[in-house]
Design brief:
This protein is an alpha/beta fold and 272 residues long. It is 41% helix and 14% strand. It has eleven helices and eight strands. Strand 3 (86-90), helix 5 (100-112) and strand 4 (118-122) form a beta-alpha-beta unit. The relative contact order is 0.12. The structure holds 3-methyl-2-oxobutanoic acid.
């Protein structure tokens, strides 16, 4: 067997190196082959198959109904489209909370069956043992603190976390514990910019912010949000880089009109 690594895929070593060099890390979510191929061709560093899948693709109100089978199905599709980016699969609700053993079994399925190179888990010190077990088995883990949407009913809504000093201290402690447990990076979601900056300076692993300000080592957005596919509301932390909702509506209306007036298919799109 050749010892040469022919793959150009980013590894967790590349990601950690970027923090050391001060190079910002780019992450977007994807849920299928079509979008993951585009992100990969553009040179995105990491693709997260987020359990936001439940809300932006499957139409649920929260991420809680998302299952392991949903996540495996979509991770397979994403990984077929992206040969260069590091692919991280989100561990869905109840796939890791029950026991470290179940967490390891489920994390392993993403690498063995779905082509991911890492998994992401929400939460702090209560999951340190699970993170340690998974990383000890050779599976990279991205941690996730701040707003953790799988705990939405306990948190009481999608709101900024760590505004009060005691809450901020808990997030700082959770982040440190996740680093000690072996996580290779950590998502900071909806926390004040100053808190995210403090955590970023105190950790040796990269922080990836979403609604956490400019001082994180990298940024992640939900791809449907940044492409403007969803037009009901735009959260404060989302910058819309396109308005695909409008573009798609324009195209579909043109198609409907062309078919109704018999101008499609024309000679160019028909066979003799
Ligand atoms: O599920 C998801 O897309 C996420 C990101 C928002 C970090 O967890």
């Amino acid at each position: 067997m050749s010892s040469q690594n022919k793959s150009s895929r980013k590894t967790i070593l590349d990601i950690k190196k970027m923090k050391e060099l001060g190079e910002k890390i780019t992450v977007l979510t994807a849920y299928d082959y079509a979008i993951s191929s585009i992100l990969d061709e553009c040179g995105i560093d990491m693709i997260l198959v987020g359990d936001s899948l439940g809300m932006v693709v499957l139409g649920y109100d929260t991420t809680l109904p998302v299952t392991m089978e949903d996540m495996l199905h979509h991770t397979k599709s994403v990984s077929r489209g992206a040969p260069n980016s590091l692919i991280i699969a989100d561990m869905p609700f109840l796939s890791y909370q029950v026991s470290p053993e179940l967490a390891l079994t489920n994390a392993g399925r993403f690498l063995q069956e779905a082509g991911a190179q890492a998994v992401k888990m929400e939460g702090g010190k209560e999951y340190a043992e699970a993170v340690h077990k998974i990383t000890s088995a050779g599976i990279p883990v991205m941690a996730h603190v701040g707003l953790t949407p799988q705990s939405i009913h306990q948190i009481g809504g999608f709101k900024v976390q760590g505004k009060k000093e005691d809450a901020a201290l808990r997030i700082i402690e959770d982040a440190r514990i996740m680093e000690d447990a072996g996580a290779f990076s950590i998502v900071l979601e909806l926390v004040p910019e100053k808190l995210a900056s403090e955590i970023t300076k105190s950790l040796s692993i990269p922080t990836i912010g979403i609604g956490a300000g400019i001082h994180c080592d990298g940024q992640v957005l939900v791809v449907n949000d940044m492409l403007g596919l969803f037009d009901k509301f735009t959260p404060k932390h989302v910058k819309k880089y396109a308005n695909l909702n409008q573009e798609i509506k324009k195209a579909v209306k043109n198609y409907i009109s062309d078919v109704k007036i018999s101008s499609f298919p024309d000679a160019e799109h028909s066979f003799k």
